[in-house]
Design a protein that fits this description.
By secondary structure, the chain is mainly beta. The protein contains three helices and 28 strands. The strands form seven sheets. The chain has a four-stranded antiparallel beta sheet with strand order 1-28-27-26, with no helix packed on it. The chain is globular and about 50 Å long.
């Protein structure tokens, strides 16, 4: 999730060294349980090298978009056939993606040059650009207005009007924003550089609350749909559930997580981890582990699409195994 402009340590290197000390006996034992996820199919990403960052989906058009950060590219995949529809190349560390359904456009946040670039989703032709600042990272869509919100730099969320290609407001933060989620005008943001979780109002451009992070390197975040915030830490590897700043649960999970999703129908969390696992946990107290599905080392990003009832996990190339999207079907 980090770009060229702001160099940060890879937490998993350090977490791997300390794993035996940080992983409790019960937690490590539960890691062997089979998760209620079945590998449905594997979609190859031909010729893709290096890290893969975030994904976006066009549900109606059944297209998946993949930020191939280490390859400097973004790929469009036809989910019906599993074939590539084309690739945008020459990008400077593409990280965050957002599909704008009302415009049939794809937005790409690039960490290397601090831009958000727009492309026509039909043919991936360039359609515009906004320069926001160093390390443009995660992208979210404000569903009230269709505007984009991007995290970037040493600490800000910028709101972009896709029609005018202009930044219309900013929310200043105490450090670089990693995972964040929107709920109306409210923004909830992981700020690991500041050891904090921050709540803010993107309409008013002000921070409304700051909570001290209980652990280090809080990267992925989700909202459970019932007023609770889900944060996953990398050191130690923990999943925490909180509401209004009060922690409801704090449990162990897999290491080097960069995405977490909520399956509301089944009341589950899916934690996507670079340790080579997806952990499934109950989203109700005491947040019991339901097992882990094996993926591939470094496969720490993904996307759960409720409309298709599938979890997509991005697996980087390793040895003789080419890069791929691993498609998992939840098992009831």
């Amino acid at each position: 999730m980090t770009g060229k402009a702001t160099v940060r340590p890879d937490p998993w290197r350090w977490a791997a060294v300390a794993l035996s000390a940080l992983c409790g006996v019960a937690a490590c034992a539960s890691a062997g349980a089979q998760a209620p996820l079945a590998l449905d199919r594997t979609i190859p990403l031909a010729g893709v090298k290096g890290r893969i960052d975030h994904l976006a989906v066009d549900v109606a058009g059944q297209r998946l978009f993949v930020a191939e950060l280490g390859n400097g590219s973004v790929e469009a995949i036809d989910l019906r056939s599993g074939k590539s529809l084309g690739r945008i190349t020459g990008l400077a560390e593409p990280q965050g993606l957002a599909y704008l359904a009302d415009r049939d456009e794809l937005a790409v946040a690039n960490g290397g040059d601090g831009t958000v670039r727009f492309y026509k989703a039909a043919d991936l032709a360039p359609a515009g650009m906004v320069r926001v600042g160093d390390d443009a990272d995660n992208l979210r869509i404000d569903t009230r207005s269709g505007r984009l919100v991007v995290g970037y730099g040493d600490g800000a969320l910028a709101t972009i009007d896709p029609a005018s290609r202009k930044v219309v407001s900013e929310l200043k933060l105490p450090g670089h924003p990693e995972g964040f989620r929107l709920d109306g005008p409210k923004a909830f943001v992981n700020v690991p550089d500041a050891g904090a979780i921050v709540a803010g109002d993107i309409d008013q451009g002000r921070v409304t609350a700051t909570w001290k992070a209980d652990h280090r390197w809080n990267f992925p975040m989700a909202l459970d749909g019932n007023g609770a915030l889900v944060t996953v830490y990398r050191l130690p590897a923990r999943l925490a559930v909180m509401a209004d700043g009060a922690v409801r649960g704090d449990v162990s999970t897999c290491g080097d997580a960069d995405d977490v999703f909520v399956d509301g129908r089944r009341q589950r969390f899916y934690v996507v981890c670079g340790s080579g696992d997806v952990e499934v946990r109950s989203s109700t107290p005491p947040y019991a582990s339901l097992g882990r599905a094996k993926t591939r080392s470094g496969a720490r990003t993904g996307l759960f699409v409720p409309e298709q009832d599938r979890l997509f996990v991005a697996a980087r190339a390793a040895g003789s195994a080419e890069a791929a999207i691993l498609v998992f079907k939840p098992i009831d």
